[in-house]
Amino acid sequence: MAQIGTDIEKAKALLESGELVAIPTETVYGLAGNALNPDAVAKIFSVKNRPSFDPLIIHTDSLEKVRKFTLDIPAPLDRLAAHFWPGPLTLLLPKKPIVPDLVTSGLDTVAVRIPQHPLTLRLLETLDFPLAAPSANPFGYISPTTAAHVQDQLGDKIPYILDGGPSQVGLESTIVGLENGEVIVYRLGGLEVAAIETIVGPVKIMAHSSSNPKSPGMLKSHYAPKASFILGDLEKLVPIYQKNGMPFGILSFSRKFQDIPEPFQKQLSEKGDLAEAAKNLFAHMRALDSVDVYVILAELLPDDGLGKAINDRLKRAAAGED
Protein backbone atom coordinates (compact mmCIF):
# COMPACT_ATOMS: atom_id res chain seq x y z
CA MET A 1 0.00 0.00 0.00
CA ALA A 2 1.03 3.61 -0.49
CA GLN A 3 2.97 5.38 2.24
CA ILE A 4 1.13 8.38 3.71
CA GLY A 5 3.09 11.36 5.01
CA THR A 6 4.08 15.01 4.70
CA ASP A 7 7.60 14.56 3.27
CA ILE A 8 7.89 17.06 0.41
CA GLU A 9 11.40 15.90 -0.50
CA LYS A 10 10.20 12.31 -0.87
CA ALA A 11 7.29 13.41 -3.04
CA LYS A 12 9.65 15.57 -5.14
CA ALA A 13 12.10 12.70 -5.69
CA LEU A 14 9.34 10.34 -6.76
CA LEU A 15 7.85 12.86 -9.19
CA GLU A 16 11.25 13.65 -10.68
CA SER A 17 11.79 9.93 -11.29
CA GLY A 18 8.53 9.68 -13.24
CA GLU A 19 6.42 8.19 -10.44
CA LEU A 20 2.96 9.34 -9.37
CA VAL A 21 2.12 10.95 -6.02
CA ALA A 22 -1.28 11.87 -4.60
CA ILE A 23 -1.33 15.52 -3.53
CA PRO A 24 -3.77 17.57 -1.44
CA THR A 25 -5.52 20.64 -2.79
CA GLU A 26 -8.29 22.83 -1.41
CA THR A 27 -10.74 21.15 -3.80
CA VAL A 28 -10.01 17.39 -3.88
CA TYR A 29 -6.89 15.19 -3.76
CA GLY A 30 -5.08 14.93 -7.08
CA LEU A 31 -3.14 12.08 -8.70
CA ALA A 32 -0.02 13.95 -9.75
CA GLY A 33 2.71 13.27 -12.29
CA ASN A 34 5.17 15.33 -14.33
CA ALA A 35 2.93 17.06 -16.89
CA LEU A 36 5.80 17.40 -19.37
CA ASN A 37 6.73 13.70 -19.23
CA PRO A 38 4.43 11.67 -21.53
CA ASP A 39 5.32 8.44 -19.73
CA ALA A 40 4.23 9.87 -16.39
CA VAL A 41 1.05 11.23 -17.95
CA ALA A 42 0.28 7.84 -19.49
CA LYS A 43 0.73 6.31 -16.05
CA ILE A 44 -1.99 8.64 -14.73
CA PHE A 45 -4.44 7.38 -17.35
CA SER A 46 -3.47 3.80 -16.57
CA VAL A 47 -3.84 4.11 -12.79
CA LYS A 48 -7.16 5.93 -13.08
CA ASN A 49 -8.41 3.76 -15.97
CA ARG A 50 -9.31 7.09 -17.54
CA PRO A 51 -10.36 7.54 -21.20
CA SER A 52 -7.56 9.19 -23.18
CA PHE A 53 -9.83 11.79 -24.75
CA ASP A 54 -10.48 13.48 -21.37
CA PRO A 55 -7.96 16.33 -20.85
CA LEU A 56 -6.02 16.80 -17.61
CA ILE A 57 -5.48 19.90 -15.46
CA ILE A 58 -1.92 21.14 -14.98
CA HIS A 59 -0.93 22.53 -11.56
CA THR A 60 1.89 24.94 -10.79
CA ASP A 61 2.70 27.66 -8.24
CA SER A 62 3.16 30.95 -10.11
CA LEU A 63 2.00 32.94 -13.12
CA GLU A 64 5.65 33.15 -14.19
CA LYS A 65 5.75 29.36 -14.53
CA VAL A 66 2.37 29.29 -16.30
CA ARG A 67 3.80 31.54 -19.01
CA LYS A 68 6.59 29.01 -19.63
CA PHE A 69 4.18 26.45 -21.10
CA THR A 70 1.37 28.64 -22.45
CA LEU A 71 1.41 30.96 -25.46
CA ASP A 72 -0.77 33.69 -24.02
CA ILE A 73 -3.05 34.62 -21.13
CA PRO A 74 -5.87 36.74 -22.59
CA ALA A 75 -6.61 39.90 -20.61
CA PRO A 76 -9.94 38.79 -19.04
CA LEU A 77 -8.42 35.48 -17.90
CA ASP A 78 -5.32 37.30 -16.64
CA ARG A 79 -7.59 39.44 -14.44
CA LEU A 80 -9.29 36.32 -13.07
CA ALA A 81 -5.90 34.77 -12.30
CA ALA A 82 -4.80 37.91 -10.47
CA HIS A 83 -7.93 37.86 -8.30
CA PHE A 84 -8.50 34.14 -7.68
CA TRP A 85 -5.13 32.36 -7.83
CA PRO A 86 -4.19 30.48 -5.76
CA GLY A 87 -7.69 29.04 -5.62
CA PRO A 88 -10.35 26.76 -7.15
CA LEU A 89 -10.12 28.33 -10.62
CA THR A 90 -8.81 26.56 -13.73
CA LEU A 91 -8.08 28.54 -16.90
CA LEU A 92 -8.07 27.12 -20.43
CA LEU A 93 -5.07 28.68 -22.18
CA PRO A 94 -3.33 28.19 -25.56
CA LYS A 95 -0.48 25.75 -24.98
CA LYS A 96 3.12 25.63 -26.12
CA PRO A 97 4.39 22.45 -27.87
CA ILE A 98 6.25 21.48 -24.68
CA VAL A 99 2.91 20.28 -23.26
CA PRO A 100 2.29 16.70 -24.50
CA ASP A 101 -0.86 16.07 -26.54
CA LEU A 102 -1.76 13.33 -24.08
CA VAL A 103 -2.33 16.02 -21.44
CA THR A 104 -4.69 18.01 -23.65
CA SER A 105 -6.21 15.15 -25.69
CA GLY A 106 -4.77 16.78 -28.78
CA LEU A 107 -6.45 20.14 -28.12
CA ASP A 108 -4.50 23.38 -28.56
CA THR A 109 -5.50 24.58 -25.10
CA VAL A 110 -4.30 23.39 -21.73
CA ALA A 111 -6.18 23.60 -18.42
CA VAL A 112 -4.06 25.30 -15.75
CA ARG A 113 -4.48 26.28 -12.13
CA ILE A 114 -2.56 27.31 -9.01
CA PRO A 115 -3.99 25.38 -6.05
CA GLN A 116 -4.51 27.00 -2.66
CA HIS A 117 -2.94 24.44 -0.36
CA PRO A 118 0.26 25.29 1.55
CA LEU A 119 1.80 21.81 1.41
CA THR A 120 1.23 21.35 -2.32
CA LEU A 121 2.36 24.91 -3.08
CA ARG A 122 5.63 24.21 -1.25
CA LEU A 123 6.03 21.04 -3.32
CA LEU A 124 5.30 22.87 -6.59
CA GLU A 125 7.84 25.58 -5.70
CA THR A 126 10.58 22.94 -5.59
CA LEU A 127 9.74 21.47 -9.01
CA ASP A 128 10.94 22.74 -12.39
CA PHE A 129 7.92 21.19 -14.12
CA PRO A 130 4.15 21.46 -13.60
CA LEU A 131 2.04 18.56 -12.36
CA ALA A 132 -0.84 16.98 -14.24
CA ALA A 133 -3.23 16.04 -11.46
CA PRO A 134 -6.78 14.80 -12.05
CA SER A 135 -8.71 13.68 -8.98
CA ALA A 136 -7.00 10.75 -7.24
CA ASN A 137 -9.69 8.13 -7.75
CA PRO A 138 -10.57 5.50 -10.37
CA PHE A 139 -12.16 7.26 -13.34
CA GLY A 140 -15.87 7.98 -12.91
CA TYR A 141 -15.84 7.22 -9.19
CA ILE A 142 -16.32 9.63 -6.30
CA SER A 143 -13.56 12.23 -5.89
CA PRO A 144 -11.38 11.88 -2.75
CA THR A 145 -11.28 14.60 -0.09
CA THR A 146 -8.90 12.90 2.38
CA ALA A 147 -5.68 10.88 2.18
CA ALA A 148 -7.63 7.87 3.49
CA HIS A 149 -10.00 8.08 0.51
CA VAL A 150 -7.00 7.90 -1.84
CA GLN A 151 -5.52 4.99 0.09
CA ASP A 152 -8.81 3.09 -0.18
CA GLN A 153 -9.07 3.54 -3.95
CA LEU A 154 -5.51 3.77 -5.31
CA GLY A 155 -3.24 2.78 -2.42
CA ASP A 156 -1.98 -0.35 -4.18
CA LYS A 157 -1.12 1.55 -7.37
CA ILE A 158 0.96 4.53 -6.20
CA PRO A 159 3.97 4.80 -3.86
CA TYR A 160 3.15 7.92 -1.84
CA ILE A 161 0.25 10.09 -0.64
CA LEU A 162 1.08 13.59 0.56
CA ASP A 163 -1.31 14.13 3.47
CA GLY A 164 -2.61 17.67 3.76
CA GLY A 165 -5.72 16.93 5.79
CA PRO A 166 -9.32 17.10 4.54
CA SER A 167 -10.00 19.24 1.44
CA GLN A 168 -11.59 22.52 2.49
CA VAL A 169 -13.73 23.20 -0.59
CA GLY A 170 -14.75 19.66 -1.53
CA LEU A 171 -15.74 20.57 -5.09
CA GLU A 172 -13.45 20.55 -8.07
CA SER A 173 -12.27 23.82 -9.58
CA THR A 174 -14.41 26.03 -11.80
CA ILE A 175 -13.06 25.89 -15.39
CA VAL A 176 -13.06 29.09 -17.44
CA GLY A 177 -11.89 29.92 -20.96
CA LEU A 178 -12.35 32.45 -23.74
CA GLU A 179 -14.07 32.02 -27.12
CA ASN A 180 -14.37 34.86 -29.60
CA GLY A 181 -13.77 37.35 -26.82
CA GLU A 182 -16.50 35.85 -24.61
CA VAL A 183 -15.69 34.38 -21.20
CA ILE A 184 -17.02 30.81 -20.98
CA VAL A 185 -17.54 28.68 -17.86
CA TYR A 186 -16.97 25.07 -18.99
CA ARG A 187 -17.38 23.43 -15.59
CA LEU A 188 -19.10 24.72 -12.47
CA GLY A 189 -17.06 24.27 -9.33
CA GLY A 190 -15.66 25.73 -6.13
CA LEU A 191 -15.48 29.32 -7.40
CA GLU A 192 -18.94 30.79 -7.81
CA VAL A 193 -19.96 32.27 -11.17
CA ALA A 194 -21.14 35.42 -9.40
CA ALA A 195 -17.60 36.03 -8.12
CA ILE A 196 -16.19 35.58 -11.63
CA GLU A 197 -18.74 38.02 -13.06
CA THR A 198 -17.68 40.72 -10.60
CA ILE A 199 -14.30 40.73 -12.37
CA VAL A 200 -15.10 40.13 -16.05
CA GLY A 201 -18.83 40.85 -16.37
CA PRO A 202 -21.47 38.41 -17.68
CA VAL A 203 -20.23 34.94 -18.67
CA LYS A 204 -21.69 32.07 -20.68
CA ILE A 205 -22.18 28.72 -18.93
CA MET A 206 -21.74 25.60 -21.08
CA ALA A 207 -23.70 22.41 -20.38
CA HIS A 208 -21.55 19.34 -19.86
CA SER A 209 -20.79 17.22 -22.91
CA SER A 210 -21.21 13.49 -23.44
CA SER A 211 -18.31 13.02 -25.86
CA ASN A 212 -15.00 14.60 -26.86
CA PRO A 213 -15.07 17.14 -24.02
CA LYS A 214 -13.24 20.44 -24.49
CA SER A 215 -12.16 20.69 -20.87
CA PRO A 216 -11.70 18.31 -17.91
CA GLY A 217 -14.75 17.15 -16.01
CA MET A 218 -17.22 17.46 -18.89
CA LEU A 219 -18.06 13.77 -19.45
CA LYS A 220 -21.75 13.29 -18.73
CA SER A 221 -21.44 9.99 -16.82
CA HIS A 222 -18.84 11.28 -14.39
CA TYR A 223 -18.74 11.07 -10.58
CA ALA A 224 -20.97 7.98 -10.41
CA PRO A 225 -21.08 5.75 -7.31
CA LYS A 226 -21.22 1.96 -7.75
CA ALA A 227 -24.82 1.87 -6.50
CA SER A 228 -27.58 3.17 -8.74
CA PHE A 229 -28.10 6.88 -8.16
CA ILE A 230 -31.56 8.41 -8.54
CA LEU A 231 -32.41 12.11 -8.31
CA GLY A 232 -35.94 13.16 -7.43
CA ASP A 233 -38.43 14.13 -4.73
CA LEU A 234 -37.31 12.27 -1.62
CA GLU A 235 -40.73 12.59 0.00
CA LYS A 236 -42.12 10.46 -2.85
CA LEU A 237 -39.14 8.19 -3.52
CA VAL A 238 -38.43 7.06 0.05
CA PRO A 239 -41.89 5.50 0.70
CA ILE A 240 -41.70 3.60 -2.60
CA TYR A 241 -38.37 1.99 -1.71
CA GLN A 242 -39.45 1.36 1.88
CA LYS A 243 -42.48 -0.53 0.53
CA ASN A 244 -40.58 -2.75 -1.92
CA GLY A 245 -37.93 -3.69 0.66
CA MET A 246 -34.98 -2.89 -1.58
CA PRO A 247 -31.92 -1.67 0.42
CA PHE A 248 -31.36 2.02 -0.26
CA GLY A 249 -29.47 5.06 0.96
CA ILE A 250 -30.57 8.69 1.16
CA LEU A 251 -28.51 11.77 0.33
CA SER A 252 -30.45 14.89 1.30
CA PHE A 253 -29.62 18.57 1.55
CA SER A 254 -30.67 19.02 5.18
CA ARG A 255 -33.77 16.93 5.91
CA LYS A 256 -33.58 13.85 8.14
CA PHE A 257 -35.91 10.87 7.84
CA GLN A 258 -36.79 9.67 11.34
CA ASP A 259 -37.23 5.98 10.53
CA ILE A 260 -34.02 5.52 8.50
CA PRO A 261 -30.89 4.51 10.49
CA GLU A 262 -27.87 6.81 10.25
CA PRO A 263 -25.52 4.71 8.10
CA PHE A 264 -28.17 4.71 5.35
CA GLN A 265 -28.84 8.45 5.23
CA LYS A 266 -26.58 11.48 5.01
CA GLN A 267 -27.41 15.18 5.20
CA LEU A 268 -25.06 17.39 3.19
CA SER A 269 -25.69 20.20 5.67
CA GLU A 270 -28.11 19.94 8.59
CA LYS A 271 -28.25 23.75 8.73
CA GLY A 272 -28.83 24.12 4.98
CA ASP A 273 -25.47 25.73 4.26
CA LEU A 274 -24.33 25.34 0.63
CA ALA A 275 -20.61 25.73 1.41
CA GLU A 276 -20.84 22.95 4.02
CA ALA A 277 -22.82 20.83 1.55
CA ALA A 278 -20.11 21.28 -1.08
CA LYS A 279 -17.42 20.22 1.38
CA ASN A 280 -19.38 17.09 2.38
CA LEU A 281 -20.66 16.06 -1.06
CA PHE A 282 -18.08 13.50 -2.20
CA ALA A 283 -17.41 12.11 1.29
CA HIS A 284 -21.13 11.51 1.91
CA MET A 285 -21.62 9.90 -1.49
CA ARG A 286 -18.68 7.64 -0.75
CA ALA A 287 -20.02 6.75 2.71
CA LEU A 288 -23.42 5.75 1.32
CA ASP A 289 -21.77 3.76 -1.45
CA SER A 290 -19.74 1.83 1.12
CA VAL A 291 -22.82 0.39 2.88
CA ASP A 292 -24.80 -2.43 1.33
CA VAL A 293 -27.39 -0.51 -0.72
CA TYR A 294 -28.82 -1.18 -4.16
CA VAL A 295 -29.67 2.44 -4.84
CA ILE A 296 -28.89 5.92 -3.49
CA LEU A 297 -31.80 8.35 -3.53
CA ALA A 298 -30.87 12.02 -3.72
CA GLU A 299 -32.41 15.43 -4.23
CA LEU A 300 -31.32 18.60 -5.99
CA LEU A 301 -30.24 21.57 -3.86
CA PRO A 302 -31.30 25.22 -4.26
CA ASP A 303 -29.95 26.14 -7.68
CA ASP A 304 -27.95 29.21 -6.74
CA GLY A 305 -24.31 29.89 -5.84
CA LEU A 306 -22.48 26.67 -5.00
CA GLY A 307 -25.82 24.87 -5.30
CA LYS A 308 -25.45 25.02 -9.09
CA ALA A 309 -22.12 23.20 -8.97
CA ILE A 310 -23.37 20.62 -6.47
CA ASN A 311 -26.42 19.95 -8.65
CA ASP A 312 -24.14 19.55 -11.66
CA ARG A 313 -22.26 16.80 -9.79
CA LEU A 314 -25.48 15.12 -8.67
CA LYS A 315 -26.84 15.12 -12.24
CA ARG A 316 -23.64 13.52 -13.50
CA ALA A 317 -23.84 10.83 -10.83
CA ALA A 318 -27.38 10.08 -11.99
CA ALA A 319 -26.51 10.11 -15.71
CA GLY A 320 -27.88 6.95 -17.29
CA GLU A 321 -30.10 6.21 -14.29
CA ASP A 322 -33.08 8.30 -15.42
Automatic annotation (TrEMBL):
It is an enzyme of class 2 (transferase). Its main location: cytoplasm. It is found in: Cytoplasm. Residues 5-191 form the YrdC-like domain. It holds the Pfam family Sua5_C. Belongs to the SUA5 family. NCBIfam families: L-threonylcarbamoyladenylate synthase (TIGR00057). Gene3D superfamilies: DHBP synthase (3.90.870.10), Threonylcarbamoyl-AMP synthase, C-terminal domain (3.40.50.11030). This is Threonylcarbamoyl-AMP synthase. It catalyses: L-threonine + hydrogencarbonate + ATP = L-threonylcarbamoyladenylate + diphosphate + H2O. PROSITE patterns: YRDC (PS51163). Keywords: ATP-binding, Cytoplasm, Nucleotide-binding, Nucleotidyltransferase, Transferase, tRNA processing. It comes from Mariniradius sediminis. The lineage of its organism: Bacteria, Pseudomonadati, Bacteroidota, Cytophagia, Cytophagales. Its EC number is 2.7.7.87. Required for the formation of a threonylcarbamoyl group on adenosine at position 37 (t(6)A37) in tRNAs that read codons beginning with adenine.
